[in-house]
Every structure is written in C-alpha cells, then in structure tokens.
Amino acid sequence: TQDPKGNPIELLNEDKGEFTVSITRPRLVEAPATTVLVPSQVRIEITDDQSRRVAPEVFTTLGSQLYLALDEPQGRQTFSLQAQQDGSLLASVVPLEPGDHSIALTTDQSGSGVGSGALDQPLGTLAVAPLAVQLVGLDDPQPQYGTVKVQLHLLDRDGKPVTGANPAPALAGDITLTGAVESSHALQSEGDGLWTATVRPEKSGNVNVGARFSTTGDSPRTIFNAQVGTFEVTATTLLSLAVISPKNGDRLAYNGILPF
C-alpha cells in the first residue's frame, strides 16, 4: 500500500485493547393504581447489565424523544417523560378508561401506531378503576312543576372528589331523564367534582337519571355513560283563582273615618 507520492505505507496490526458493550433496557419502577381522570405518577428507569441507571439518550437513537404510551380500548395516549435527579424518568399519566392497560416506552408521540424504526417497548400495566358518579340530595320527593336541581358528584376509587384541578382533559356532561319525565339537560361544573343541571318536571312519578361524561376536542372520548339513580316527583294540584265579589263596576262604601 502506497501514499499518493508512491511511498510505502506501513500498516499497523496490533492489539490495542478491548471494550465492552453493555445492553441497556427500560424497566417499569412503579405505576400506582388510579381512577379514570386521576393522574398516576408512573416511574421508569433505563439500566445497563450492571443494573446501573443510564441517561435516556444512551438508550435511544440520537435526537429521538422518549414518551410513555398508555393503550386503552378507545385508543393510545402518549405522555412526556421528565428526567429526575435520581436518574429515573417520570410521567404524569391521565387514564380515560377503566381496566388494566398496557404501558410502553415509545418514540412515536402521535399515538397512531409505531412508524418505521420507532421504538415501542412494553413495560407493564396500569390498573385503572372506573369513575364513580353519585346522585346528590334527591332523597326526598320533589314537587311537580317545581324547580329541581339535579347534582352529580364525581368520585375516585377512594371516594374523594375528582376535581379536575390536576392536568386532566376538559369535560362535557349531560343527563338523560326517563320514566315519568323524558328529557335531556346539559350539566355545568361547579367545581370540587360537582356538576349540576336544573329541571322542571311536568309529570309525577319516578324519574330515572342517566349521566354521560366525555372529553372535548377533535377526538372526544366517552369516559362515563350509565344510570346513576332515581328520584320521585309528587303530584301538585294547580288552582285557578277568580274574584267572585265584588264584581267589576260595583261601587263600594267606605265605612271609616277619613283623615281630613
């Protein structure tokens, strides 16, 4: 072998040492059980063969961003991962459906599926309890033709209000009344997990209350749709009153002392 000027080039063929390539892998550290709409702080780590935590850029392709994916029946959600001081990665995961859902580490933020060369590494599951919706304050019979305030309380797996103060998606809610009354009404949030609709029942009898909550936006998801309770409407008699006496045009005498 020669250089461009024709001089011979001495090739070195010596053993200069060796290096070891470690295999890195992600691992689910904790995924606290939660309730629909209530964030779960899911923690993962990336370790080498010696169980030492490594930086996420060591694990993935240069320039790729890692996300935590949650696979639910109505679709996949992805959540950003934040590096912690101890070297772990944390994501605030807000589930929209109950059940045991798969968690994966991915570089595909769209949630539409794994693209060419994209990472999609299953890690474990997240247990999600259903949202509880409680009908509030209608134990006593309500008057026909009166104003009835239908109130619903959103509760988590521990009976605590689901306030929406955490990073949860925007919600829309409505109720459907069946039985003695057939109508639908939009719900308004009053904070602290309380939603209200005002109705005026025109018939007496038992009224069934069904509730539906869904996320808003371009791709809404239904997160609750079920019967939540009943209330009773009692009959009210409407009276029509008329003045019989004196008649229109009658002259009346004043039997008192005038002040002048």
Describe it for me?
This protein is mainly beta and 260 residues long. Helices cover 2% and strands 44% of the residues. It is built from one helix and 18 strands. It has one helix spanning 56-59; strands at 25-30, 34-35, 40-47, 67-72, 75-80, 82-83, 89-93, 99-106, 120-129, 132-136, 142-143, 148-155, 171-179, 183-186, 188-191, 194-199, 205-215, 222-234. The strands form four sheets. The protein has a five-stranded mixed beta sheet, with no helix packed on it. A five-stranded mixed beta sheet has the order 11-18-17-13-14, with no helix packed on it. β4 (67-72) and β5 (75-80) form a beta hairpin. The chain is rod-shaped and about 140 Å long. It starts with 24 loop residues before the first strand and ends in a 26-residue tail after the last strand.
Let me know the number of strands: 18
The percentage helix is under 10%
Stretches where pLDDT falls below 50 for ≥5 residues? Answer: none
Number of helices: 1
Q: Which structural class fits the helix and strand makeup?
A: mainly beta
How far is it from the N-terminal to the C-terminal residue, by CA? 139 Å
Mean pLDDT: 84
Strand percent estimate = 35-45%
